[in-house]
Amino acid sequence: MTDRIVLAYSGGLDTSVAIGWIAEETGAEVVAVAVDVGQGGESLDTVRQRALDCGAVEAYVADARDEFAEQYCMPTLKANALYMDAYPLVSAISRPVITKHLVAAAQQFGATTVAHGCTGKGNDQVRFEVGIQTLGPELKCIAPVRDLALTRDKAIEYATANNLPIETTKKNPFSIDQNVWGRAVETGFLEDIWNGPTKDVYDYTEDPAFPPAADIVTISFEEGIPVALDGKPVTPLQAIEELNQRAGAQGVGRIDIVEDRLVGIKSREIYEAPGAMALIAAHQELENVTLEREQARFKKTLGQRWTELVYDGQWFSPLKKSLDTFINDTQRYVSGEIRLELHGGRATVQGRKSTTGLYDFNLATYDTGDAFDQSSARGFIDIFGLSSKVASERDQRLHGTPDFSAVNSLDS
Ligand code: ARG
């Protein structure tokens, strides 16, 4: 029986050419798999037909939008995941869900190998292949751009020579990856990190410099998950989609950073994630109201580790799963409402409401009705500062100063 290779198919030039290219280079049959994670653009039927027209023996399309929103975006929201304090993991979380469908398709169609269109310089190759190794240890991986010398020029030449039904003339200078959680843009003139992004870089967001009137949205959460917008029940997918529109119209969620890739390269990235950034702002503030102080502090550290693991392609790793258990446990009381103002590039919290929160008006108030016993503060402070005070007395005794570290730094 002829060997079969499952190819992660986007419908674009590179992966369309890859179908025939892989077949010629390896002698295998190619099964194209396209996964809808809310990237928009062409219909999946069109994409499926193109794969067949380009020579795929089978073409399989999966609508993974709800799955992606519920099982990938929501955990990212619960973790308030921002890699390098900025990037909400847009591409990093789509790779594991795509991988799941690739591995399932490989098993269904009897393939021995999975192929993807990544280069050898990025994070995505790692995310795909670590995921594939984990979910389908029997499968091999191949990347035609990296392993079979499929360059951009050769792709255009091949598509023209073979009359493939794919646009070869449209010159987009950028490498773009998008899904419902956001959009990533790199390469082209953005590689000069002094260059500012031009208008044509953006698609999910309007220019925040010229915003329409402010948009006030109330987001209801249950256990860390958005369940209603302005009182209207929504699924996670609907919540993200609606906020992409509303926050996007206000230019919320534009990000421009130099980022540390896992492979050691620093790269310039532009992201747009209006819905994700609005949701994270709201969720984070609801946690401020509902999480106990030490739990909140620890969750921040742990959330950062979770974020780095996911960025680094460790979605299916044991540590990531263990951290999920902790994070889910913290979400038990993260329920209530956040009122957000979306305006001019910013998502600003204006109001909070929670019946499971820890904010106690009677403890917090400076007005009459104060339930906090201020006389306890003195004794608390005496004991809280005691160990430093004892150490300082020693320094005074031995060095004639209560702050020996200051003397030390003067000496050097
Ligand atoms: N640098 C980002 C990441 O590693 C985005 C990669 C997006 N891929 C692309 N082809 N533009 O998650």
UniProtKB/TrEMBL annotation:
GO biological-process terms attached to the record: argininosuccinate metabolic process; L-arginine biosynthetic process; urea cycle
Domain Arginosuccinate synthase C-terminal positions: 174-390
CDD domains tied to this protein: ASS
Class in the EC hierarchy, top level: ligase
Segments crossing the lipid bilayer: none
A UniProt-annotated Pfam family: Arginosuc_syn_C
Subcellular location: Cytoplasm
Residues engaged in binding ATP: 8-16, 117
EC number: 6.3.4.5
Binding positions for L-aspartate per the UniProt entry: 119, 123-124
Residues reported to bind L-citrulline: 87, 123, 127, 175, 259, 271
InterPro entries xrefs: Arginosuc_syn_C, Arginosuc_syn_N, Arginosuc_synth, Arginosuc_synth_CS, Arginosuc_synth_type_1_subfam, AS_cat/multimer_dom_body, Rossmann-like_a/b/a_fold
Protein name: Argininosuccinate synthase
Organism name: Candidatus Nesterenkonia stercoripullorum
Source species taxonomy: Bacteria, Bacillati, Actinomycetota, Actinomycetes, Micrococcales
